[in-house]
Amino acid sequence: MKIVTIGAGAHAALTHGPALAAIAQEDPAVELAAVCDVRRERAEEFSRQFGYRRTYADYEEMLDAEAPDGVTLLSSESMTSRIGSAVLRRGIPLLLEKPPGRNSAEHEQLLRAYQLRRTPHLIAFNRRYMPLVSRARRLWRQLVPPEKLQSVRCDFYRHNRHDPDFSTTAIHGIDLAAYLAEASYTDFRISLQRNGKGECTAISLWSGMTGGSCAQFLFCQQSGCSFERVHMASEHYAMTLELPALGTCDIPGRIVLYHRGGLLREIPMEGDARSCRPFLLGGFYHENLAFIDMLKKKNFDGRNADLERVLSVIRVTEAVSSSILPAGLCQMES
Questions:
Q1: pLDDT per residue over 12-47, tens digit each?
Q2: Which residues of the chain form CATH 3.30.360.10?
Q3: Is the sign of the CA dihedral 138, 139, 145, 149 positive or negative?
Q4: Beta sheet of 237-242, edge-to-edge order
Q5: What residue spans of 118-263 are helical by DSSP H?
Q6: CA distance 201 to 171
Q7: Cα(177)–Cα(11) distance, rounded to whole angstroms?
Q8: How is 104-122 classified by DSSP, letter by letter?
Q9: Which residues, listed in sequence order, are joined to residue 238 by a DSSP beta bridge?
C-alpha cells in the first residue's frame, strides 16, 4: 500500500511524520513511497527522518509518478483547498489537515471535488482521535443516550498567542463538541473581548444543536495558562475531559466522571509529560491509522463523509473568524 505525503513543514514533522513512520514499522504492507514539499530540501530531510523512499517538489509530478493508494495532505492552510480538490478529483483517497478550507467557499470547492467521484477521505481533526477522547466517548455512550445530553462546554486557553485569527485553533473545539454530542449546530451567538491594542483576547460562543442540546465555548488566547478542557452534562451524569493537546499543561490527560452531584471516578491516562509521545496522545497516530484501515478495508462510509458532516462546523467557525477580523480578511488564517 503506497502512501505519499504533501507538505513537510514543522507541524508535519512533529506529528504526522512520526505517526506514519510508526505505522509503517508495525505494518510491512504500508510503504511510505514519497513526500513532496515546495522546498525540496525540507522534503529530503523529512524523507531521511521518517523513511520515505523518494522526494519531489511538485505534487502533481509525484501523483503521476507514484500512483499512490492514499495521500496525506499536510500543506499550509492557504493551499489545502486547491491541492485537496485536485487529489479528490483524481479519485485518490485523502487524509487532509484541518481546516477543510479557510472559509465556506473553499470548503465548497473541496466538497464539489469529493462529490464528483465520492472519493474516500478523512479530515485530520486530531482531537477526535485522541485515546482519551475515544475512551471518554465510549464511557459516556454507555451511561447517557444522545437525546439526554443537555450541554457541552469547551474551554481552550493559551498563553501569549497573538494570532490575528484564533479560529484556526478554535475549530478543533467546535468540531469536537459536535462530535461528542453527535449533533450539528443550528444557531449561534458570538461575543469578543479585545485589549487596548485591539487584539482579540477572548471569544465567547454559544451554539444551539440538533437534538435540543447546546454548546458553550470560551477561547482565551492570551491567558496565564494553556489547556483544553471539555465538560459534558446530562441530568444525572457529568464528565470533564482534560485533553493532552500539544504544548498544554494537562498531558497525559484525565477523565473525571460525576454522578448525582458527587465524584464517581477519575481516570488518569498513563505516562507523564516527558515520557509520552505527543503524536500518540494527541491523536495523530490514530487518525493516520484510521485512514490506513479505511484504505485496507475499503470501508469508507459515504453516508457520513467528513466533508459533508462538518458543514455546520465550518459555518460556525467562519462566523467566529468574521467576528475577529476586519471585513475582507476573514479567511480563517493562522
A1: 999 999 999 999 999 999 999 999 999 999 999 999
A2: 128-277+313-324
A3: negative
A4: 185-194, 200-209, 214-220, 151-157, 227-233, 237-242, 254-259, 262-268
A5: 131-143, 167-181
A6: 16
A7: 24
A8: HHHHHHHHHHHHHHT--EE
A9: 233, 258
Q: How far is CA 240 from each of CA 246, 266, 281, rounded to the nearest angstrom? A: 18, 10, 17
CATH superfamily entry for domain 2-127+285-301: NAD(P)-binding Rossmann-like Domain (3.40.50.720)
Q: Which residue has the cell 489537515?
A: 97
Cell of 148: 439526554
Q: In this structure, are strands 2-6 and 70-73 parallel, antiparallel, or unpaired?
A: parallel
Closest CA to 295 of 18, 61, 68: 68
| Correct CATH for 128-277+313-324 of 3.30.70.3270, 3.30.360.10, 1.10.3720.10, 3.40.50.300 | 3.30.360.10
Decide: 204 and 190 in contact? Cβ < 8 Å: yes
Give the residue among 125, 102, 81 at the shortest CA–CA distance from 245: 125
CB distance 90 to 71 below 8 Å: no
SS3 label, residue 150: coil
For residues 231 and 153, give the distance between their C-alpha atoms in angstroms, rounded to a whole number.
5
Which of 2-28 are b and which e, b meaning 16 or more Cβ less than 10 Å from the residue's Cβ?
Answer: bbbbbbbeeebbebbbbbbbbbbeeee
> Measured between alpha carbons, how far is 132 from 128 in angstroms, rounded to an integer?
9
CB 269 within 8 A of CB 252: yes
- Give 42-51's long-range contacts (Cβ < 8 A, gap of 24+): 42/8, 42/9, 43/8, 45/8, 46/5, 46/8, 46/12, 46/13, 46/17, 49/13, 49/17, 49/21, 50/17, 50/18, 50/20, 50/21, 51/21, 51/24
Chain segment 51-77, per-residue pLDDT in tens: 999 999 999 999 999 999 999 999 998
Task: List every span in the chain annotated with CATH 3.40.50.720.
Answer: 2-127+285-301
Contact at 8 Å (CB) between 232 and 245? no
Contact 130, 244 (CB under 8 A): yes
Q: What is the pTM of this model?
A: 0.93
